[in-house]
Amino acid sequence: MSEIVLRVENLSKYYQMGEVTVKALEDVSFEVEEGEFVVILGPSGSGKSTLLNIIGGMDTPTSGNVYFHGEKITNFTDKELTMYRRHKIGFVFQFYNLMATLTAKENVELVAEITESTADIDEVMEAVGLYDRTDHFPSQMSGGEQQRVAIARAVAKTPQILLCDEPTGALDFETGISILKVLKDVNVKYKNTVMVITHNSPIAQMADKVIRMRSGNITEIIKNESPIAPERIVW
Amino acid sequence: MKKLDLRLFRMIKNTKGQYIAVLSIIVTGIFIFTAVSNSAVNLRNTLDDYYDTTNFADIFITAAAIPERLERELEGYENIRQADVRLSLDTRFITDNDDDRVNVRVVSVDRKENKLNELFIKKGKRTITEREVMVIDQFALARGLDIGDEINLDIKGRKFKFIVSAIVSSPEYVYLMENEQVLLPDYENFGVVYIEEDYLRKISGSGSFNELVIGVNNQDKIDKTKDYLEDELEKYGVMRVIDRDEQLSNSMLNEEISGLETVSKSMPLIFLLFAGIMLSVMLSRIVKKDRTSIGVLKAVGFLDEEIIFHYLKYAASVGIIGGFLGAIIGTLASGAMTNLYLEFFNIPMLTVQVYYYRIIVSVILSFIFCLVSGFWGIKNIIKINPAESMKPESPKQGKRIILENIKFVWNKLTFSWRMVYRNIFREKKKFLFIAAAVSITCSLMIMTMWMNEIMDVMFIKHYSEFMKIEYNLSFRDFEDERVLNEIKENISYNHMEGRIELPFEIKNGKYSKTANVIGLEENTEFYDFRDLDGKKLTVPKDGILISSNLANSLNAGKGDRILLDSFIPDRDGEYVTVKGVIEQSLGINGYMNINYLNRKFLDKGIINGVYINSDDNVKAKLDDINNIISIQSQEEMQNVFEEFTGLIMVFMGAMVIFSGILGFVILYSMTLMSINERTLEFSSLRVMGFTKIEIFRMLIKENMVMSVIGIMTGIPLGKRLVDYVGNTFNTDIYTLRGIVSAKDIITAIILTILFIISAQLMTYVKIKKLDFMQALKSRIT
What is the CATH number that goes with domain A34-60+81-232? Predict the structure, then answer.
């Protein structure tokens, strides 16, 4: 059995909006094994982004704990959380969020400069299918290409977990599939854990594990014994 | 290059308009600081070097008769290093023109070299023989005198012919003025010539000397030395003992240098302050725009301090580049500026140095200033939450502005004006900054216009309202007032009065000042005395009226008893009551009833000058009367003034440009910022059918409202600035006090508007180039 890379224990997150307490997450618990491809599925407002932000060290819970390789990150100081994000986590956002004034390759090199162990940048660019677009600025690239750069940026610092927030949300079907393929390839090639959150249920078919969420709760966790290749997904 | 630095570099490239704008203000501020302060230091150093080289005296004494042996007797006592006696006579320079009354001060010099106040030979030789003269440079130049030329002097009523053997400069006459009362140098009509000591004594029939100059060992003990000399020389009829600080030429120079130092401290501060605010606003806008990018940087593991440092580099680069450029240009300009000053001050050995430490200080100063203001602008980086920053910012709450509550105004506004006012009220800080910039520009312009006008006004006021004297005649010695009859017989005149003009050391407690006191007839028609409230005053039967700058120097006011010491041998000082403080724009004086003055300090019925109002050819007709040392016409004084407006014009031009840059740059960059931030809004308006001109008009209206507010507040601010300048630049020579005229204000407003319009036109180019459709698209991708 693989090592547990992430353990989430009774995680809750409440927001106070005027007199109303919004329960973004309530008593959420699950585990993720090393190298797993996990899809967190749920409609908007189900708490999946909040969950991803807490796992990624960008937000803190109201109660409960998150363990990374057995170390409790929910006790971390701001600086420790930043170091955790710097060395252990890779992020891919829905709107790519690249630095507009840096070229594709420079965007990737930017994060590589602050991490201890980095992958070969050219190899990563090739792995995401962008070898011939490295000198282009984000404004000169399509959405799909920008998202590939975002993935390369996340992968280049050899994170142990790759967190992807609706990575295909702003893309058309074909581009979306190609991005999912890149994510799967990265998962296989670099053996890192990939967690994708999406509201798009067909994507769950490619996952090793599917966590379904609704209104801040986990409704079910399914272990997928036979994940399909991204190319076979249709929506 | 690190990728973050590369990003910074490209960010600067993308915002080059604003970057250059803020840079130009920093450059201007540092430029003024370096140019003016370097000039002040250059002048100070040049002067010090000159004084050292020429062994400039520390104390100057005028007395009735000083024996030569006193030199030996004094040296070595009471801090006295060196003593040198000399003969100084005011004589007439004879020209071909009878109307000319050119005064020349003849000063005795040693055959080879003076002990003190050595002469700087510009041309010719220092060794001097009988019938040779050395002529002061400024006078020689104005009169076209050269080596070998012949000059004629009237010494004690006899004509003497001399050959010019050298053209010289003297540390005593760097600023060549006859006395405190003439206010400005007149090179053509006053000069100094140096004649060999024994020969001058022979031809003037003077057995003794009338001046003594002293060099001291320790400057700190100079007051004690002065007191000692006053006591010691009393028996020789000591009239005046002044130190180097009070020496006319030196005090004029010191006043000028102090003025430069004040400007070098205050003006750059205004520029740096505005640059700081602008930089802070700019960076806070950039950070706001980069909110998501900052969130991403945090998300991928950059520390807060790393991100802050990244943005601070922007501010630091402005500080370093601005500081460096400003300091370099300023240093280069300071050479030219010092040279310009030397047109007016005759220092033959100019020391223009590059002060590397000042360049470094400027860069550090500008760097720290930018860093602090930069940090102020970007401090909100700490507050950006990476998770929140990924979400689009919630739109600003739309709420009614105050103006909307005033229904009768609001309802009358058109749609576009309503938008204008809403924008202004929603971006209060930015618009207040624009208003402040316009306000300061307008106020600086007002001050500049006022200064230009006040110089004219000061002269006109002084010579036609305060003093209504067409000719001021001075006798060499005191005369019986019956001499007036002789003058009356020689010329036709409208009005004539005898007068006394005498220097006094005036004391009020610990305060002391040497100034001329003028004795006038009780109902004098030559002066119009007004107190500081403009109320008319007459010459009191007893007591004294003092000018406001004298009142300031003495810390005295109406009713105070002040001590007047006349320098006349065997006469003790007398207490006199101040009967009023008068407004006087030029010069520093006291005024007394002539009978009271004579009774108290001199003898009855004597005068040493005459005021004349006449249409006659006074100068030519009075030429033969003995004992007249000078006849100055009002016209001559005003002509001299015209020559001296050159420096003022240069200063004024520079001030207009600098103030304009401030208003122009801030308005331009703030509008540019608006355009960059509101492209989406403008794009939507374009989609709705607004033309580029209409959008531009909207922007203009916003700036116009703030400009009007800026100008309206700029007027009282300008007046305050004028008051401040008036109080700061209060010297013995002039008192800058005067009302800001409507003409000053209107000119200042017109100039301010011109700079505003040019800034607006520049931004129109930007609006024309904007791709509104691309702006709409970029929001989608």
Answer: 3.40.50.300
SS3 content of chain A, % helix, strand, coil (to 5): 35, 30, 35
Which residues are registered as beta bridge partners of B169?
B120
Which residues of chain B fall short of a pLDDT of 50?
779-781
DSSP 8-state class, residue A230: G
- Please list, residue by residue across A196-218, b when 16 or more beta carbons sit within 10 angstroms of its beta carbon and e when fewer do: bbbebebbbbbbbbbbbbeebeb
Query: What is the per-residue pLDDT for B751?
Result: 92
Q: How far is B772 from chain A (nearest CA, A)?
A: 16
Helix (H) or strand (E) holding B496: strand B495-508
Q: Which one of B289, B300, B304 makes the best mutation probe of the A interface by having the most chain A beta carbons within 10 Å?
A: B300
Query: Which two tokens mark B420?
Result: 């204008």
Chain A contact for B289, CB < 8 A? Answer: no
Q: Count residue pairs from A and B with Cβ separation < 8 A.
A: 78
DSSP track, B228-296: HHHHHTGGGTEEEEEETTTSHHHHHHHHHHHHHHHHHHHHHHHHHHHHHHHHHHHHHHHHHHTHHHHHH
Q: How many CB atoms lie within 10 A of CB B427?
A: 18
A window 16-75, beta carbon within 8 A of B: 49, 53, 56, 58-59
Q: Which of B293, B298, B781 sits opposite A143 (nearest CB)?
A: B781
DSSP, residue by residue, A175-187: HHHHHHHHHHHHH
DSSP class of residue A227?
P
Of residues A226, A202, A197, the one with CA closest to residue A213: A197
Q: What is the pLDDT of residues A88-135, one digit of tens each?
A: 999 998 888 899 889 999 999 998 888 887 888 998 888 888 888 899
> pLDDT of A160-176, one tens digit each?
999 999 998 888 888 88
Contacts of A60 (CB under 8 A, 6+ apart): A54, A74
Cα–Cα dist B682/B687, whole Å: 9
* A49, A78, A111 ranked by CB distance to B300: nearest: A111
Q: Is B1 on the interface with A (CB under 8 A)?
A: no
pLDDT average, residue stretch A174-197: 89
Q: B631, B618, B629, B607: which is closest to B475 by C-alpha? A: B629
Which H/E stretch holds residue B739? Answer: none
- Report which residue type is found at B12: I
B774 touches chain A (CB under 8 A): no
Chain centroid to Cα B195, Å, comes to: 36
Flag whether residue A164 sits within 8 Å of chain B, measured between CB atoms.
Answer: no
CA end-to-end span of chain B: 29
pLDDT tens digits for range A30-55 = 999 999 999 999 998 899 999 999 99
Residue environment code for B463-474, b if the CB has 16+ CB neighbours within 10 A, otherwise e: beebbbbbbbbb
Residue identified by tokens 């006295």 is B80
Closest CA to B474 of B611, B636, B620: B611
Domain limits, chain A? 34-60+81-232
Q: Do A102 and B2 touch (CB under 8 A)?
A: no
Could you give the maximum distance between any two Cα atoms of chain A, in Å?
Answer: 54
Please identify which residue in the block is written with the tokens 């809403």: B422
What is the mean pLDDT of the segment spanning A226-234?
A: 89
Q: Where do the structural domains in chain B lie, given as residue ranges?
A: 1-56+244-394, 62-221+233-242, 427-466+635-781, 471-613
Q: How far apart are CA A8 and CA A6, in angstroms?
A: 7
